[in-house]
Write a structure and sequence with these properties.
Blueprint lengths: L1 H10 L3 H13 L6 H14 L2 H13 L6 H13 L3 H10 L5 H13 L3 H13 L6 H14 L2 H14 L5 H13 L3 H10 L5 H13 L3 H13 L6 H14 L2 H13 L7 H13 L3 H9 L7 H14 L2 H14 L5 H12 L3 H13 L8 E6 L2 E6 L8 H17 L11 H11 L3 H12 L6 E5 L5 H14 L3 E4 L4 E5 L2 E2 L6
Helix pairs in contact: 1-2, 1-3, 2-3, 3-4, 3-5, 5-6, 5-7, 6-7, 7-8, 7-9, 8-9, 9-10, 9-11, 11-12, 11-13, 12-13, 13-14, 13-15, 14-15, 15-16, 15-17, 16-17, 17-18, 17-19, 18-19, 19-20, 19-21, 20-21, 21-22, 23-25, 25-26
Length: 506
């Protein structure tokens, strides 16, 4: 009865009550068993309390359950979910017997800690040790493929899924559609979706998102209509995906219609993310007054991202005063963010207000804030290759830089001019030199020398692509005759024959 009640509390998000009962159990000198410990570790996760978790770990050792695989798995999960991946890894490394759940937990924890490359290593290692992946393993590793936009690896995993007979499982099929969409392969996403025997709301959300992310807004709207006709009720995520699709395709009127429809026709109240999509649409259309009015009329509290969207639109349209107002809101809502300072400084510099630009940079520096370094990575022959600006750590750096120099000459002959507009005078000459070696350019150069002619390049970047790299990649795609897919912090960019799918708004 003690175990039943503690488990009931823990599994229903009542970790505090579970602990109170556990402590009462101790006072009444009732000895906990394996089931008790599994439930109370679940309560630690609910409370996100690593201190309590360590205390329970000590009791588990005292009761000699620490070598039980199920208990070890629960300990790993507790440490990882409570923020200590290192302690989870220590337990995993010392395990005498690992079952498939042990591997799945470590792969999942790696993903939760933004270590997708570590997830791939674990997946490879488990197979070397003779452990067969199960459905959960495949779902986690597909998420890793999606996270890093690893199309080739994703296709390999898909082949394994088919061989293991998991390809008819709707949850796996949905994960495949999601993965292909995030990897920029709409063709593969559609191939999986179209063959599904059953399509639930998650399936439709995945394919609509894939279309929207890859710049096929009208196709996304068509899919939404088909979804409704088939009797599948859209949810909040459906509308978020459809509004994103409208945003990426610049479909302002359609966006407004869906934004109004979600509450009027489906009883779904917009979240801050839905408002963000509408702000992006208004910003793209240059309707900055309407965008600011929308923020001020929101029935929910705008967040820092909301105001950053307006700030980005102000940069594109040169609205300096509104930019300053938007930046002030971001400072208050996210005081540790450097991005609004950098953006506002560049807006001032573009407008020729050099003193204001320098002042904003000084305030940022005095606050101890630094611009997040840009990183880009791509997969070549089953290996992840990462780059930062000016990076010389790669074993093939000499060839990479030689390829970049060759590309620079070809680009200049084709009419390319570095984009330094909006930079302080003191930074301009330095930046002109550094621009040639931004992380995505290094990644592109490496991809060109490491893959056969005509092979599309799939690159992921942690930040928004800068205007110069965007312009340069358009030139490069035309010069080398390759499709280049770049997934930045904002959206997908499909560069082909000198044109980008975003139509130069991102």
């Amino acid at each position: 009865s003690w175990n039943a009640m503690i488990a009931a509390y823990a599994q229903n998000g009542l970790g505090k009550e579970a602990f109170e009962l556990f402590e009462q159990m101790d006072l009444e000198e009732v000895k906990p068993d394996k089931i008790t410990f599994l439930s109370i570790l679940h309560a630690c996760v609910d409370l996100r309390s690593i201190i309590k978790g360590r205390e329970i770990h000590a009791q588990i050792v005292a009761c000699e359950y620490e070598s039980d695989t199920v208990v070890e798995n629960a300990l790993m999960n507790m440490y990882g979910r409570c923020g200590s991946l290192k302690e989870a890894q220590e337990i995993f490394g010392k395990m005498y017997h690992r079952d498939v759940a042990s591997w799945n937990i470590m792969i999942a924890l790696s993903m939760q800690n933004a270590q997708a490359s570590e997830a791939f290593k674990l997946f490879h290692q488990m197979q070397l040790e003779g452990m067969e992946p199960d459905k959960i393993t495949f779902l986690e590793i597909l998420d890793a493929c999606a996270s890093l936009s690893f199309l080739v690896k994703g296709r390999d995993i898909h082949a394994c899924i088919v061989a293991k007979g998991f390809d008819a499982d709707i949850v796996v099929e949905n994960a495949l559609v999601h993965m292909y969409g995030k990897c920029g392969s709409l063709k593969d996403a559609h191939a999986v979706f179209d063959k599904m025997h059953q399509q639930d709301v998650v399936s439709w959300n995945a394919i609509i998102a894939a279309c929207g992310q890859n710049g096929h807004g009208k196709e996304a709207l068509k899919l939404f209509r088909q979804m409704v006709l088939k009797g599948v009720k859209p949810d909040k995520l459906t509308f978020l995906n459809i509004l994103n699709a409208c945003s990426h395709a610049g479909l302002l009127d359609a966006g407004w219609n869906y934004f109004v429809s979600m509450s009027r026709d489906y009883g779904i109240q917009p979240m801050v993310e839905h408002y963000g999509c509408m702000l992006d649409l208004l910003g793209r259309a240059g309707q900055l007054n309407e965008a600011e009015d929308l923020i001020n009329s929101m029935p929910i509290q705008p967040n820092a991202v909301t105001w950053m969207i307006l700030l980005g639109a102000c940069q594109i349209h040169g609205d300096v005063e509104r930019a300053a107002r938007a930046a002030e809101h971001v400072y208050k809502l996210d005081p540790k963010a450097a991005a609004p300072y950098v953006l506002l400084s560049n807006i001032y510099a573009t407008a020729g207000r050099w003193a204001d630009a320098a002042m904003v940079r000084k305030v940022m520096e005095d606050a101890g804030l630094k611009k997040e370094p840009g990183c880009s990575w791509l997969e070549v022959r089953n290996r992840i290759h990462g780059f930062t600006a000016g990076d010389t750590s790669h074993p093939q750096s000499e060839e990479i830089y030689a390829e970049l120099q060759k590309l620079s000459r070809q680009m200049e002959e084709a009419g390319y001019v570095p984009h330094v507009k909006g930079m302080l005078h003191a930074e301009e000459e330095i930046e002109k030199k550094q621009m040639h070696y931004h992380s995505e350019k290094l990644a592109i150069a490496f991809g060109l020398i490491s893959t056969p002619f005509g092979t599309p390049l799939h690159i992921v970047k942690n930040l928004r692509v800068c205007s110069d790299c965007h312009a340069a990649t358009k030139f490069i795609s035309n010069i080398v005759g390759r499709d280049i897919f770049v997934r930045d912090a904002n959206r997908f960019h499909h560069f082909k024959n000198g044109v980008c799918s975003c139509e130069d708004y991102w």
